[in-house]
């Protein structure tokens, strides 16, 4: 059996490995000449790590993951700790560590494992045809590829999604802009093995350790969409948006490299329940685009890859039947992740200022139990 995967992001690469491991001949076709992930780093929560373990990458993900032993929220002005607690109880409960990871290293790990020789670059899908027994992908350079199954892992602007749903879907602006990058660990900003978040004014500044003594940092600011953006002005912009914030935040703004700081307007897509059509399946952001507020978009893409491969392996009534079962297994899970992230997004970013103030207040009484319960529920909802 042969699978054609469209898109070499974390979803496509994970699907490629999962199907290859189950004996499928698998090829990945990617639109760009060099896969450049949006964003500097990503938190792989234990549900995602378990998927990577399942794919055979247990040692590799541990090697590139940061050591995140505790979690803290701090007041934006005074820098005072509102709550701080260890993450070990979460690890014990869900059975795996979280690993914040630089995106470039994650991407390399996945593509190396899949085998770069079977990743075809500069292959932009422009059409596809499913004749009931095979699927043929047509690329912008005039070439084609045919397989028993096609996986659309072509991200939030997916072209395969149009084929599966029969119409386009609109992305929804979530109301905030995110800046992110990597910086050398400096304990005057935050402890080296802690996920630290400064909160106030509906904004946040967060730092997570990744391997190589680096912090993954991000800043969120509620803003209208479509503002002019340039890396040249990002330090100046951040200084303006974070005027009056405490010394560690100012120090971070001074230390970051503005030319290596990404600026992303955050969107999601209203969840939909059709993930497959005939021999074509959607996976990752093509199937469910979420705001990053619970750090689950990429983890869900890896879950998709695992469930899709298990479904194809476990059922013998044909590809179309196995894909329908993949859809049945995933729709509820991915819908709940998108909606949970949207809810968290609104509280974090001051959509209802009273709710946000109540959340800040609740952090002062947080022992870790409530937050860790919420995280455990999300993680344990995964397939492994
Ligand atoms: P993508 O990574 O978008 O890959 C799609 C690929 O398809 C691209 O390489 C693209 O070039 C290719 N492609 C597109 N169109 C075509 C075509 N027509 N033909 C061929 N190829 C095509 N998730 C987490 O789990 N944890 C986090 O902490 C986290 N933080 C985030 C922070 C931010 C700021 C953002 C924006 C997202 C975050 N996410 C996080 C979400 C995560 O980044 C995505 O869910 C994940 O990258 C989706 O992977 P994917 O492979 O589905 O799509």
Helices and strands in order, then pairings?
Layout: E1 2-6, H1 10-21, E2 25-29, E3 41-44, H2 46-54, H3 58-64, E4 70-75, E5 81-86, H4 88-94, E6 99-102, H5 103-114, E7 119-120, E8 125-130, E9 135-139, E10 144-147, E11 149-152, H6 160-165, E12 172-184, E13 194-200, E14 203-210, E15 214-222, H7 234-241, H8 247-255, E16 262-268, E17 276-277, E18 280-282, H9 297-314, H10 319-348, H11 353-364, H12 369-380
Parallel strand pairs: 1-2, 1-11, 2-7, 4-13, 11-18
Antiparallel strand pairs: 3-6, 4-5, 8-9, 9-10, 12-15, 12-16, 13-14, 14-15, 17-18
Bound molecules: flavin-adenine dinucleotide.
Flavin-adenine dinucleotide binds at residues 6-12, 29-32, 35, 37-39, 42-43, 48, 124-125, 153-155, 159, 178, 180, 264, 284-286, 292, 295-299, 301.
């Amino acid at each position: 059996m042969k699978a054609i995967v469209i898109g070499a992001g974390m979803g496509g690469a994970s699907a490629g490995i999962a199907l290859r491991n189950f004996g499928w001949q698998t090829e990945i076709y990617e639109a760009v000449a060099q896969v450049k992930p949006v964003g500097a780093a990503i938190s792989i929560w234990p549900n995602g790590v378990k998927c990577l373990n399942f794919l055979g990458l247990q040692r590799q993900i541990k090697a590139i993951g940061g050591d995140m032993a505790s979690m803290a929220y701090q007041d934006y002005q005074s820098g005072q700790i509102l709550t701080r607690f260890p993450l070990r109880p979460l690890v014990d409960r869900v059975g795996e560590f979280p690993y914040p990871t630089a995106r470039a290293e994650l991407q390399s790990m996945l593509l190396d494992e899949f085998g770069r020789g079977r990743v075809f670059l500069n292959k932009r899908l422009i059409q596809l045809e499913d004749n009931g027994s095979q699927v043929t992908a047509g690329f912008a350079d005039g070439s084609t590829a045919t397989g028993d199954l096609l996986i659309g892992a072509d991200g939030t602007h997916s072209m395969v999604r149009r084929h599966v749903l029969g119409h386009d879907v609109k992305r929804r602006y979530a109301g905030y802009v995110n800046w992110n990058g990597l910086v050398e660990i400096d304990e005057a900003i935050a402890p080296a093995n802690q996920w630290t978040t400064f909160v106030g004014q509906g904004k946040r500044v967060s730092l997570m350790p990744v391997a190589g003594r680096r912090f993954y940092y991000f800043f969120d600011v509620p803003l209208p969409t479509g503002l002019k953006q340039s890396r040249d002005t990002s330090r100046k912009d951040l200084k303006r948006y974070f005027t009056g914030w405490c010394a560690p935040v100012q120090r971070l703004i001074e230390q970051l490299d503005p030319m290596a700081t990404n600026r992303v307007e955050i969107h999601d897509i209203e969840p939909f329940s059709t993930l497959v059509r005939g021999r074509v399946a959607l996976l990752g952001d093509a199937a469910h685009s979420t705001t990053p507020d619970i750090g689950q978009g990429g983890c869900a893409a890896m879950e998709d890859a695992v469930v899709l491969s298990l479904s194809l392996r476990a059922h013998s009534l044909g590809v179309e039947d196995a894909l329908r079962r993949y859809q049945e297994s995933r729709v509820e899970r991915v819908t709940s992740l998108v909606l949970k992230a949207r809810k968290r997004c609104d509280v974090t970013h001051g959509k209802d200022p009273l709710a946000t103030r109540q959340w800040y207040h609740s952090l002062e009484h947080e022992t870790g139990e409530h937050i860790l319960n919420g995280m455990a529920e999300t993680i344990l909802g995964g397939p492994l």
